[in-house]
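Duplicate of #3305? Posting structure anyway:
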């Protein structure tokens, strides 16, 4: 009996660790619930029940009528699909009986988020915002302004994130920097006729698209509370971005986007 309880306790710990990995790195709630359940069933549990919120996960395993419940607090670690993919791969291997309990635990402990070099992220964000400006009739001169403004803003955002600054303050300062750089460049005689779409395109790196998509997906799939929480967080980030943009335009007397 004690051996069975010890095994169930280990499985419960792995299941909630699986769900926590997914929740911390941006997976939607339905995927968190599905993969943690599949892992528990693959490891011999009769049933796995879970309750997911924006800041915690509660999970119960049932084996031969014995219930064991565990709770973990969720700390957001940023969107990282590499972690989500690794967890999915481990669960699939467990379902095919290619990994046992100890090997799964070892694989979980070896998961590390994939981080691209900072310079590569800055470069690609700058190019993507510049391309958006060009596609929206901003011209090549507008694309150049957007590239420099968004690249500098992304670098500032990375520095603030590294110092663990509050996300809303981070977004506000980053939007202020992007709008300031693009707006002041548009004042130069060289760019006097450049469309102001360059100012709007320079802050696209702050659009919280992934959280908004996840929030809608959660609400459509029945996870109303988690979906509303994610929508509220995304809305606050958008509000912080707007405040940063308005502050820059007011302080420097920049012309509008229209």
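Output from current build:
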């Amino acid at each position: 009996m004690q051996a069975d309880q010890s095994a169930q306790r280990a499985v419960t710990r792995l299941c909630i660790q699986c769900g926590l990995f997914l929740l911390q790195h941006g997976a939607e709630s339905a995927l968190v619930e599905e993969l943690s359940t599949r892992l528990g069933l693959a490891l011999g549990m009769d049933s796995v029940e879970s309750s997911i919120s924006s800041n915690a996960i509660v999970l119960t395993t049932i084996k031969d009528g014995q219930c064991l419940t565990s709770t973990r607090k969720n700390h957001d670690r940023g969107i990282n699909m590499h972690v989500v993919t690794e967890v999915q791969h481990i669960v699939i291997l467990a379902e095919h009986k290619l990994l046992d309990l100890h090997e799964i635990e070892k694989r979980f402990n070896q998961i590390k988020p994939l981080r691209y070099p900072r310079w590569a992220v800055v470069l690609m964000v700058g190019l993507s915002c510049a391309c958006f400006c060009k596609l929206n009739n901003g011209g090549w001169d507008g694309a150049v302004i957007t590239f420099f403004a968004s690249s500098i803003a992304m670098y500032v955002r990375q520095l603030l994130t590294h110092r663990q600054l509050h996300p809303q303050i981070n977004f506000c300062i980053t939007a202020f920097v992007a709008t300031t750089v693009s707006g002041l460049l548009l004042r130069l005689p060289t760019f006097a006729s450049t469309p102001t779409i360059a100012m709007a395109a320079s802050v696209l790196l702050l659009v919280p698209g992934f959280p908004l998509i996840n929030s809608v997906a959660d609400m459509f799939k029945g996870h109303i509370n988690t979906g509303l929480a994610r929508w509220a967080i995304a809305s606050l980030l958008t509000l912080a971005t707007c405040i940063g943009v308005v502050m820059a335009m007011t302080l420097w007397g920049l012309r509008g986007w229209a």
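Confirmed duplicate; merging threads. The radius of gyration is 23 Å. The chain has ten helices and three strands.
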